[in-house]
Amino acid sequence: MLRVYQFSLNGLVIGVTIASLILLTNNFTRYYSVKPLFTIDKDLFNYYYTYHNFTKILKFYPTYFGLYLIVAVAHTLSKVTKEQQQWLRFFGYFALLVFTLTILFLNARIIVGLSFIVYSYYLFLFIKEQYKVNKTKFFLFFIGVLLFGSIFFSFIKTRTYFLDLQVNWFGI
User: Fold this and answer.
1) pLDDT of residue 81
2) CB neighbour burial string for 26-59, b if at least 16 within 10 angstroms, e if fewer
3) CA-based angle 16:146:85, to the nearest 5?
4) Exposure of 162 by Cβ count < 10 A (0-12 exposed, 13-18 middle, 19+ buried)?
C-alpha cells in the first residue's frame, strides 16, 4: 500500500511540474509579447497575469490547482532531503523552483499562506540538521536566508496586485 501511495505522489509531482511549466511558459509568453525581453516590472504580478488569468489555459480554478501544488511541494521537500542520487535531487530542486514561481502567480492567499507554512516547516528541519552538523555552515545559511528574504520582500513591497490582495486581506 505504501508503494502505491509513493507512486501516486510521484505522479502528482510530475503532473504538477508539467502543468506549472505550461502555465509559466504561457504567462511569460503573454507578458513578453507586450514588453521588451528580460524586463520585469511590477505589472508582472497584476491582475492580467495572476489568479484566474494565470490558470485560464488549463481551465482550472486557481485555489484547487494550488492545493495540488501544496501536496507536490510537501512531497518533493520530503523526498529531496533524503535523496542520494544527484540527478533526482536536481529535479527536485528544479521542481521546487517551478512550484514557488507558480504559487506566486496563482496569487491565492490561502495557498501562499499554506506554502509559507510548508516551506517554513522544512526549513526549520533543515536548519536544525545543519546546526547539528556544522555551526559555521548554519550561520552562513541563516545569513543567506535573511538576505534573500529581505531582497524578495523589498521587491514584493512595491505596489503590486499581489501586495494589494495581502493588504486588503490583513486590513493594513
Assistant:
1) 81
2) bbeeebeeeeeeeeeeeebbbeebbbebbbeeee
3) 45
4) buried
Are 131 and 48 a contacting pair, CB within 8 Å?
A: no
Nearest Cα to 101, choosing from 16, 10, 37, 35?
16
Report whether 65 contacts 92 (CB < 8 A).
Answer: no
Per-residue pLDDT tens over the stretch 93-141: 999 999 999 999 998 889 988 999 999 899 888 878 877 888 887 788 7
Can you count the helices (H) and strands (E) in the chain?
7, 0
Quote the CA–CA distance of 125 and 170 in Å, as a whole number: 28
Contact 81, 126 (CB under 8 A): yes
Contact present, 93 and 17 (Cβ < 8 Å): no
CA separation for the pair 95, 92 (Å, rounded): 5
